[in-house]
Design a protein that fits this description.
The chain is an alpha+beta fold and 497 residues long. The chain is 41% helix and 20% strand.
């Protein structure tokens, strides 16, 4: 006997940091995207689309991980040895697009785009390697009115998605204020780029880690719950205390940016940031959004280095229960800010720009937690299922399918090999409203049986009183002439769709 070599079976497993999505989530996401588009269009933004892949050099020093420039993003070389990367966000590709098409675009250029982005980072709870963002950007104006407008649009968008007023806040700060503070502790200039970015990322974790966690990251570093150690910025205690005083959540923003530190008060960029925040505050108040929807908050940082002015964060303030029952705030679902130097990298001159990005996947989880109608809507109905009870008559069944499709009704011919009951169970799993049944008896009479599957499900759950049973059974499945197929199916669909 010949030995039969056994082949090992490939294990079906999803890579860490990635997620599959079923039809219900996809349908809900589509409703979300439609609502966000409506909001963005109301503010005059138009659609644009950029590819998933960019030249790695287009990301430049704005890669998410300075110490591992090809590890923060997914990168590879093409056949001419050029480095390419999956896009890390939607902002850098937009900057490349605007620079490449600058003379053809209207200025200011207002655009929105939705798409998948990729992060080559350690996955964890709420942190994915692939997720969707929805951005809106205004390029070509330095007016802080553009920044204020994005904050107002973010508030309108959350309410359009079903988040109640009072359950969210759009928080605004200015990186120039932070830059002035970093100058005050001698972290200005290009040579301090790495430490400055470490400080900003530490401050950005204030909501999650609290003051003491940020203190550790501003100092020597911090070990997390898993034992992993994150190297800190290495600031001395005086510098740490200065930074923590600036971002003290217990103070008003006026108190926070009014500091007695001489270096800070003499910082031109720091005081410019204060002036811009005051201007945004006036614009927000004039539009009536100072009722708690939009608020100036110096704890907002944003972790990416390319921000140059106002920065904003969309935060959900309601609480949800974790698996262990503890209440927690949902937190940030979007943010953005001004990035006046990003487009200029391609052109040699600064081009003012500002933008806002919604984390679609995270926002979906939040909307699901509050049972928003956007995501809690009825599941998308499946097609009408035409059963195949006689394989020799499959062409006839295909004719029924074509009749329905030609009338604009989604329909599917059952292509399996199971019997009638199994086919009806299949139709239920497909969330079909009705099924078309024709056996030999119906065929001889030129008739078709229409099974109302929704009503049939009600029948299964109703009382066992014979009168009720017979009445529902008559409604749930009935005979019509073949020529009445369209009318009958439309009647059933009208009941439930």
């Amino acid at each position: 006997m010949n030995d039969i070599k056994k082949t090992s079976r490939t294990q079906a497993r999803l890579p860490r940091g990635l997620a599959d999505r079923g039809p219900a989530e996809i349908a809900a996401t589509e409703r979300m995207l439609a609502a966000i588009k409506d909001s963005y269009r109301l503010y005059g933004f138009e659609a644009v689309e950029t590819p998933f892949i960019e030249y790695t050099e287009a990301l430049g020093k704005f890669l998410p991980d300075l110490d591992r420039p090809n590890e923060g993003v997914f990168s590879f070389q093409d056949d001419d040895e050029q480095w390419l990367s999956l896009r890390y966000d939607l902002t850098a590709p937009l900057a490349r697009y605007v620079a490449e098409n600058y003379d053809k675009l209207p200025k200011p250029y207002r655009s929105y785009r939705a798409g998948t982005v990729f992060r080559n980072e350690k996955p964890g709870p709420g942190r994915f390697r692939q997720f969707m963002q929805f951005d809106a950007d205004t390029v070509g104006t330095s007016s802080v009115a553009a920044d204020a407008e994005l904050c107002m649009m973010a508030a309108d968008t959350l309410e359009r998605l079903g988040v109640k007023r009072g359950d969210y806040v759009i928080k605004v700060n200015n990186r120039k204020v932070l830059d002035g503070a970093l100058e005050a502790i001698d972290l200005g200039g290009e040579t301090n780029f790495g430490r400055r970015l470490t400080v900003l990322r530490a401050i950005d974790k204030l909501d999650r880690l609290g003051v003491e966690g940020v203190r550790l990251l501003l100092g020597a570093g911090r070990k997390d719950e898993s034992g992993d150690f994150t190297k800190g910025a290495g600031l001395d205690p005086a510098a740490i205390n200065f930074i923590l005083a600036l971002i003290d959540p217990g103070k008003s923003w006026e108190d926070q940016v009014t500091t007695g530190d001489v270096k800070f008060t003499e910082s031109e960029i720091g005081q410019q940031g204060r002036t811009e925040l005051e201007a945004i505050g006036r614009l927000i108040a004039a539009a009536g959004y100072d009722d708690g929807r939009v608020r100036i908050d110096p704890t907002v940082v944003r972790g990416l280095e390319y921000y140059t002015g106002p920065v904003f964060e969309a935060e959900l303030t309601f609480e949800i229960a974790e698996e262990d029952g503890r209440p927690v705030r949902f937190g940030s679902v979007g943010g953005g800010g001004r990035y006046d130097g990003l487009v200029g990298r391609f052109r040699g001159d600064d081009v003012p720009a500002t933008g806002f990005s919604i984390g679609v996947s995270r926002l979906y989880a939040a909307l699901k937690a509050i049972n928003s109608p956007i995501v809690a809507g009825a599941a998308q109905r499946g097609p009408v299922i035409v059963l195949v009870l006689d394989q020799s008559e499959i062409a006839r069944y295909q004719g029924f399918v074509s009749t329905l499709r030609n009338a604009g009704i989604a329909a599917e011919l059952y292509l399996g090999a199971s019997g009638m009951n199994a086919q009806l169970k299949y139709a239920d799993k497909r969330n079909a409203v009705c099924a078309i049944i024709q056996g030999s008896n119906e065929r001889e009479k030129g008739e078709i049986a229409i099974r109302d599957l929704v009503l049939g499900a009600e029948l299964a759950a109703t009382s066992k009183e014979r009168a009720d049973y017979l009445e529902l059974r008559t409604k749930a499945q009935f005979l019509v002439a073949e020529s009445d197929l369209l009318r009958a199916v439309r009647d059933v669909l009208a009941r439930h769709c």
